[in-house]
Design goal:
This protein is α+β, with helices and mostly antiparallel strands and 316 residues long. Helix content is 28%, strand content 30%. It has 6 helices and 16 strands. Strands 2, 4, 5, 7, 8 and 9 form a 6-stranded mixed sheet that branches. The protein is elongated and about 135 Å long.
Length: 316
């Protein structure tokens, strides 16, 4: 509010000049009034200044290149006039450290600010150096800035190149089930100790020996997708897009699996059973900084089928 302060200085100079140039008693009253004006404004503005709160909302995740808005508004009692609030908005991404914008003329109504959603990765908005002014714009008092979560920018699904052999995962193997009911059965000759209720009498009558109906169960394979830390925008879009493609394909074919990635010095593990788990894992992988260490050679999980996603990815 530099302009307001400059205008007030001119008003003080004009009132002082009028006082010294005139012998009228009203000149003295005018000078006192102009001198006391900032304090009067502060006194009337204090209720609004002390109760004003800045609120902001941003989605925790979004698709790449999708239109997303940052919603900012002021919250204070309805009977108080809205004071002037100014803040700095810092938009930090994986590739751009700072994108400063100056926000002013915030109101009670929802203010909409478009934010970038490209390239994929994350966007960390930071509101800082907030100031709330009195009604004349002469006093500036700090106001607490709200904390907003980091927004993950999800990539589109991209088929990896080369494409791993996914069909082999669907080749299910069966094994005898110890007790219980199963919709899948196998038939074998009766052995001493088998329960009588398990005998298949119709098949037994057609053959020369007793036939037993044996329940079978599917051997569940442990499937792991290991994500290498992507370096650079192009590698990030390709790596995370391949993760989304493979993980969604496995979910569509009812294959539970595990996704591994590095976050700093720690190996993060996510169990995937549904599409919501895919989005949650993809969100976590998007938030990983490029300074994270590479995946260790010996992963802390056993896998019947392992696919490394990223540079020099390999299928085992």
């Amino acid at each position: 509010m530099a302009a307001n302060r400059i205008l007030y200085c001119f008003a003080v100079v004009a009132a002082a000049a009028f006082y010294f140039a005139s012998s009228l008693w009203v000149s003295w009253m005018l000078l006192v009034l102009v001198a006391a004006l900032p304090w009067i404004s502060l006194l009337f503005s204090l209720p609004a200044i002390l109760t004003t709160r800045v609120e902001a909302a941003l989605p925790t995740s979004t698709e790449e290149n999708e239109a997303v808005n940052l919603h900012i508004h002021l919250r204070l009692p309805r009977f108080l006039p809205t004071p002037e609030v100014r803040m700095r908005l810092n938009l930090r991404t994986r590739d751009t450290m700072t994108d400063l914008r100056f926000l002013s003329r915030l109101s009670r109504t929802d203010g909409v600010l478009s934010v970038p959603t490209s390239p994929c990765g994350y966007l960390a908005p930071e509101l800082r150096k907030g100031r709330v002014y009195d009604y004349l714009g002469l006093w500036a008092i700090p106001v607490k800035a709200p904390t907003m979560p980091v927004m993950a920018i999800l990539p589109a699904a991209v088929a990896p190149d080369p494409m791993p052999n996914l069909e082999q995962i669907l080749n299910q193997q069966l094994r005898p089930k110890n007790g219980g009911y199963s919709e899948i059965h196998d038939h074998r000759p009766y052995r001493p100790g088998d329960p009588v209720k398990g005998i298949h009498w119709k098949l037994s009558l057609k053959s020369d020996e007793l036939i037993v109906r044996e329940p079978m169960e599917t051997i569940r394979r442990s499937v792991v997708l290991a994500v290498r830390t992507p370096r650079g925008p192009a590698a990030r879009a390709k790596t995370l897009g391949s993760l989304r493609y493979l993980s969604s394909w496995l979910v569509d074919h009812s294959v539970d699996h595990t996704v591994l990635w590095m976050d700093g010095e720690e190996v993060v593990r996510a169990e995937i059973h549904a599409e919501d788990d895919v989005i949650a894992a993809l969100t976590g992988a998007c938030l990983v900084p490029e300074t994270s260490r590479a995946l260790p050679a010996h992963l802390p999980v056993k896998a019947d089928w392992l696919c490394c996603i990223g540079e020099q990815g390999a299928e085992k």
